[in-house]
UniProtKB/TrEMBL annotation:
GO terms for molecular function: oxidoreductase activity. It comes from Hoeflea prorocentri. Transmembrane segments: none annotated. Its EC number is 1.8.5.-. The keyword Oxidoreductase applies. Residues 104-260 form the Oxidoreductase molybdopterin-binding domain. The keyword Oxidoreductase applies. PANTHER family: PROTEIN-METHIONINE-SULFOXIDE REDUCTASE, PROTEIN-METHIONINE-SULFOXIDE REDUCTASE CATALYTIC SUBUNIT MSRP. This is Protein-methionine-sulfoxide reductase catalytic subunit MsrP. Gene3D superfamilies: Oxidoreductase, molybdopterin-binding domain. SUPFAM superfamilies: Oxidoreductase molybdopterin-binding domain. Keywords: Oxidoreductase, Periplasm.
Length: 323
């Protein structure tokens, strides 16, 4: 397992711990006044914003240090643009789902690791976030609908999670699954979609340096509309591969059928690598609209990440690699 580098706010260092005697003295004092409950409530009320029950216990992990190996040749998309234009069908099939997505309950959030692993286990998201080493990376994101953005993600390498899961040598793919809760996410009441959202990668793709598990963006814990608390970022693939709000990670020897592949297999496949030369069934992939400027740019092979990933697909020319 990776070293514990960051400490969450609730794991107080010894230097900050209240010495036991002082603690007991204070408690006796409060008891003496007969105002224990009231005293605590009043103290909390005097400090709005402090010790709030709903505050995010992973907030102390941000901002994480930027890994300069992952930089960009273009401006970042402003946060207010990115966080108000999203695909998250669980909360509606349009781009303005950011308000509806605030209904997503992200704590507690357990992640199941199962399938072809030495021993299946469940880990709480906050626990996971503290066991890995978080870093910031600047990534491109190219949606299959021909718009693109750039974003400072915070997270950890997917290969670190694979190491933690200890897959058997028979595992060839990883299948990711989002939550299923139609009461919370009204989009999941639309029965014609095969909920929950599912995505998959090969073990080799997961081992690539670029494959990133995202826990934050813009130097903060992930906003709900970005797929809190944990999503994937696979910047050389069309955006739909980057599954949001992951609940279950399964190691398997069969290729997972992803959500969009199940809906429209003639238009969406398993690989979905960005290729400007291979048009979508209904539109060209030659260019992309930059979200915050509205200007068009030529789309790059593997979204500009060919040097890092092209080798993964050598000898696979018979596969539908670009849809
Ligand atoms: N669970 C889930 N994950 C998802 C989607 C979704 O609808 N549900 N949409 C995908 C698509 S099509 C894109 S382009 C990206 C959008 O990510 P963003 O909103 O952070 O830009 O999320 C992907 N992950
Ligand atoms: Mo997308």
């Amino acid at each position: 397992m990776p070293n514990i580098i960051h400490k969450p706010s609730w794991a107080l260092s010894e230097a900050h711990a209240t010495p036991e005697d002082a603690f007991f003295n204070r408690r006796d004092l409060i008891k003496g006044f007969g105002l224990a409950g009231l005293g605590i409530a009043a103290a909390a009320a005097l400090q709005p914003g402090r010790a709030r029950a709903d505050s995010d216990p992973t907030a102390d992990l941000y901002p994480a240090e930027r890994n300069t190996a992952f930089t960009l040749d273009r401006d970042l998309t402003p946060e207010d643009v990115n966080s108000t234009y999203n695909n998250f069908y669980e909360f509606g099939s349009h781009k303005q789902i950011w308000k509806a997505a605030q209904a997503l309950k992200t704590s507690p959030w357990d992640i199941e690791i199962d399938g072809l692993v030495e021993e299946p286990f469940t880990i709480g998201f906050e626990d996971l976030a503290c066991r890995v080493s978080l870093e910031e990376r600047l990534y491109r994101h190219r949606c299959v609908e021909a718009w693109s953005m750039t974003i400072p993600w915070t997270g950890f390498a997917l290969k670190d999670l694979v190491a933690m899961a200890k897959p058997l040598s028979s595992a060839k793919y990883i299948r990711f699954e989002t939550f299923l809760d139609p009461q919370m996410a009204a989009g999941q009441k639309q029965r014609w979609y095969p909920w929950p959202y599912v995505e998959g990668v090969t073990i080799d793709e997961a081992a690539n340096d670029l494959a990133f598990m995202v826990t934050g963006a813009y130097g903060k814990p992930l906003a709900k509309q970005f797929g809190a608390p944990l999503r994937l970022a696979l910047p050389w693939k069309y955006g739909f591969k980057s599954i949001k709000s992951i609940r279950r990670i399964s190691f398997t020897d069969t290729r997972p059928v992803s959500f969009w592949e199940e809906v429209l297999p003639e238009e969406y496949g398993f690989w979905a690598n960005v290729n400007p030369g291979v048009p979508h069934a209904r539109w060209s992939q030659h260019q992309e609209r930059i979200l915050h400027t509205g200007l068009y740019m030529n789309t790059l092979m593997f979204n500009g990440y060919g040097e890092q990933v092209a080798h993964l697909y050598k000898g696979m020319e018979r596969e539908k690699l670009y849809m």
